[in-house]
Structure formats: structure tokens, C-alpha cells
User: Fold this.
Amino acid sequence: MSSRSAMPKIVASQEPPKLTTIHVAPKKAKVPAIVVEGKGQVDTRPCFTSSWIEETRVTAPIASERHVVAGVPVTIASARDSSCGFYIIDPPEYKLNPIHIQVLADSIQEIVDSLPEDLDVQSLTTVRPHIKSRAKDLAYAKLAGRSTSGNGTIDIDREAEVLAELLSKYTAGYGILETLLEDPIVQDIYVDAPSSQNAAYVVLRSSVSERVRQKCRTNVFVGRRDLMGFVSRVKFETGLPFSEAHPVLEADIEHLGARVTLVGPPLSDKGVALAIRKHSYGVWPLHLLVSWGCLSPLLSSFLWACVVGRRTVLVAGSRGAGKTTLLASMMLEFPLSQRVILLEDTPEIPFRRLQDIGYDIQALRFVEDGRSGSSSAEGNLRVSLRMGESAIVVGEVRGMEARVLYESMRAGSAGSSVLGTIHGNSAKGVLDRAVEDLGVSERAFSSTDVVVVIGLIRSPDGTRFTRKVTGVSEVRMEGAHIELEPLFSLSPGCSCAKPTQAFNSDCKTMKGIAEAFGISTDDALDIIKARAHADQVLAETAASHPERATIQKDDFRVRSNEALSRNLFGPAGAEAGLKEWKTWFDEVTQ
Assistant:
């Protein structure tokens, strides 16, 4: 690669116009030699952005995939001798000719100078369409005035439409970061300080092809001006402070569908660092997690029984392990007749999607930033317990609400299933955290039926990572102390957690499920095993027939559950009910 101190390329096919003066690119850290093939590579950027695009090619990639995000070509490549992949974008705005660059620069200035006073600048849904409409009119007029080639009106109109979209992207949008934010296979975005000297990184979702690496270096270097513009947008939209006195800003940006974390000086002495975690709009059904190897069909069926059988389940794991994903998947196991109260400080579970499917679900938000007081989560939980018979789902059990939650469970106030997530890498770690950190007594903690631990398992070469349920433990009270009995465990060489000898009709949780169902423990176990066959059919069909997209959707899971519930509890028995469900499945998937 050419020296970083060399003069960067001005994005123009001819002589640059007067407004495209670009300064020398700042010195950047060296990148691995495997990234670039050939010599004379240069960095580029147009005058209306401070971010740079590195002209990157991977030498002899072992895997390469291409797709388009909002008109921007994206290439994901993997090199043989690197555990990190490469996420390469080729935005068309970085290849504009001088006339288009000049038109964009002039239009931006005119729009900024002439925004209507009554325009609601706090609403992107209002600002962006206005800017795009205004930009198209300006661009059309300027292009028509400059055109000497005899291009027709249709060509000018098409060019004006493209330029208007680009202008709105870099004024009312998020600029170069917009491609990363809109790509559905990108889950996390990281920009390290100083942003102009470090390439942005992305982490791809687990559902991405196994041929490519999940952690990828991009060819984007976010300029300081663009990054500070992003910071200003976040501060403006959230109303939260971000300065040297408040160097950390964490907020959920609803219209982005993402959680944004900003860290600045003095914590980050080289400038502002950015981390973005994108939420999912839909919910992954359990059988899809089965097809990905996250859990077995039997465990999936057991979790369904815990949800429907009014058990208390804690989903534990480290950050990014998939706790919230699994919790949301378990919420799909509720029958549509079940009322659900959801308590979260950060809206990560897509409850609106659950409402769209048909669930009676009420979300209660609480704030733990000192402004509303540390009792807000506790207060919301007390309110939820007075809102009638409802299943309670707590986004994360981590504060004062923990004691209220366990008090209500011991007193029977919850009335139905209680689900929640908690940080911890093992069932023992969860017990220690609840007792030592959250002030829950062991006797109160015994109200928990099972602790499900999900973990992030990396491949030996570091190129891939998968999320798997590593263990399920039953909580038992033996005398004055808690005993944690493994019901499912992940053994070396096994693809997913397998049942232990303790998973039988005599275990505490199975007895509770059977009591809730009004049947014997043996019948409850038979129903769970029969239902596991249905999950296996669903998982195998989803894996072997990806063209059948309907089977992978959350609403199909709900329909399947309703059909199973009608048949499994019939007088003919679980096996006969499974055959009836299979007939239904064949009919709806033809």
C-alpha cells in the first residue's frame, strides 16, 4: 500500500470543482499485508464528508460474498491466513464526477441556509423527506443548467433523484455509517479512537454463512467531523449529556433499532469511541435455534413446558451470549391467551412485533440513571403485580427489583410464569450473584425452578463463534441450602446440551409442570418428548428447505404451538396428537 501521508485521491473523473479542496489524509495505523493486492492503493473521499474509504482488496480470498445495501455494493471476504474477515463497501458517492460533486456541495449549502422555521428538526421522519424533496428540485435545476450533452429530461431526473438521496443521507441521515446500520447481517459496529486512524469493525450475525468470518475489519475510516455529527445527533435525540464531565453516553435509539454507547475524554484520551448493538425486529423461533445447533429439540420442548407450565426461569450468560435472544424466543411459547407484562430499562425485546402477532403484552419501562431514582424498577414491578394475572418477563434482573420479584414469587403473587435474564456464566455464578450482590436470600432464590445458561463458544481458530445453551440446572432446597441439579449439560464432543439422569419424571420442575397441566408426571414427560419430535421436524425442514421462509418466521411458530396444544393434550394421547399436528404441518407447508 502506498504511504498514508501521500496526497489522497479527489473523487472526480476530471478537474475538481472549486469546492472539492481536500487536505492530506491523516497518518493511519498499518494494516495487515494480506488486505491489499497490488500497489498504488489510495484513500478517497468526496468534499461533503470527512470519512475515508480505503480501496481494499483481499488477496486470494477463501470465501467471498456480495450483496447490496440501499444501493451500496458490499463484499464480505475471508483471507486464509487471518481470523478476521473483511467487510468492504463501495459507496457510489465516492465515485462522483466533478459536476455531481459541485451540485451536491452547492445544494447542501442552500438547504442549510434556507430550512423553514416551522420544520420539526427533532423528527427525522419529517426532516429527511423535506430535505430530499428540496434537494431534488435544486439538483434538477443545477444539472439542467450545466447539461451540454443533450441528455433528456428523464436522465436528468434520474440523476437528480440519486443526488437527492445522497444529500439526505449526509445531512439528515448518518452518512457513511448508514450502510452498516442498514445491513441486516451486521449486529455490532465498533469505531475505536482516534476514529480517523482506525478502521471501523463489524460483527456479523450468527445466521451469516459459515464460509465467512464473523468479526470483520471494514474499509471505513470515520472522520472526526462525521463522528462528532453522529454524537450531536445522539445527544439531540436523547437529551442526555456527553462531555468531559459525563464521558459516557448509553442510549437506545428507537428509529435506528440499536443501542448506542459513546465513550469520550478523559476515559478515551484519543477521542470519541463508538459501539452500536443492533436489535432484531423479529423473534427467532426456538426451532430455528435448534437448526443452528443452539439447543436440542428435547431442550426446546422442555423450555416450552416451563413457559406454559408456569415455571420460573432465569436465562444466564455473559454479554453478547444471546440471553435476550433466547428469552424472546421463549416468549413465543406463551399461548396467545396469556397476558404478559414486560419490564425493561432498555427496549431490546421486540414487544411490538409480539403485539403484531397477537399477544396481549404490556411493556413497562424504568430508568436507572439517577434521575428517576433507583426504586423505579422496583416500583414498576410492584405495579405489574397489581395488573391482574399475568406472566412477568424481566429484561434483566440486576437491582432492587430482584428482592421484590422473589418476594412476589414466594407469596404466589406472580400467578404465572416468570422469565428473566441475569449476568452469570454458570448456575452457581447466578446463585452467588443473586445472594451476594442482589441481596436475595437462598430460601427466596429457591423460588427459581431452572437456570438456563447460554454461552458464546468460539472456534479454535477464532474465525467463528456460536451461541449454545451450555447447561440447564434445577434449583432445589435441601435443608437450609440450595442444591443445583444439572438437567442438561454440554459435554466435550457434543453438538448441544444433552439430558442428564436427573431429567426424569421425578424431578422438581417436572412435578411442577405436571401440576400446572393437571396430569401425571409420566404423562407430562411423554408430552415433552412427543413435542420434541415436532421441533425436530421444524428444525430439519427449516435447515434443508431455506426457500420455505414461512417456517422460519415467528408467527408460524405461534400457529404451530397453537396446533400442538390442541392435539397433544387430547384424550388419544401425545403420540396421536403428534400425528394430528404432522397432518396439519403437511397441509400448511405444501
